[in-house]
Amino acid sequence: MKRYHLFIYGKVQGVWYRQSMLSEAIKLGVKGWVKNLPDGRVEAVIEGDEDALEKIINWCHIGPPNAIVSKVEVFEEQFLNEFASFKVLY
Questions:
Q1: Catalytic residue, candidates 36, 41, 58, 81
Q2: Cα gap 79→59, rounded to integer Å
């Protein structure tokens, strides 16, 4: 099990990015959260098995149809097993 902290850049707010990531996370069994940042980026913390995390990180580089992702920063963190589900934070 692993944990990653993500920062997604580009046209990623106002394009259903967070809701689409929620759907993808539920489908893959990934836990954690996603939220918008005031500077226009999207931030997420994800936990799960390595295969599922790799799939959702790959998805993050594309996002939903109206998103234009320019960069995804991925930082590995210590796995804490602190999440029961995946949530959109507001």
A1: 36
A2: 21
